[in-house]
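User:
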Amino acid sequence: MHDAAKGAFGRMSGKPGKAIPGAVIAVQSALTREFEGLIDTADVTHPDPGERRRKFLSRALAALVARDRAACDTADAAELVIDGRDDFGIDAIAVAAGEPRLWLIQSKWSDRGEAGLNSGEALKTLEGLRLIDQHEFDRFNERLQVLAERIRAVLSDANRRITLSVVLMGSQQPSQEVRRKFDDAVKSFNE
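Assistant: Predicted structure:
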């Protein structure tokens, strides 16, 4: 099975024969096992099945983190995925049960374990954070609209905490420029 999975991933990455890291194969298998049939991908119209699969895996990665943060079951975590048009760089939103806490999750998948986040993507995610902080939910897609009341309840609490989680299928740290953008946002939002 390992060799079959490696071959399939080689084709998906567009580089036949290139070895795929074992950790990527293990994570892909776990995400598929947990979220196949639960993650909504009806909006993904790319003609390449590999691209559609990568979109599923990126969303499933966000759902996995949301499940952990919100302490919910897998089906509920899949419902926390808002990735798609008008997501403002936020792929999932986890809402804590019983405390005023949100996690805004941005995820990136790479079949080769080389996912990264560039400066433009970081700025888009920070714009999403700003819009949520200002209660501008109508700017987001329908997937966020379903969560709007739960988000609003958290934001109305003076003790609220919002955490931005960037999840990358890779081992590279974000660049200094990207880290600086996030650090600046932390200072600005924490004033």
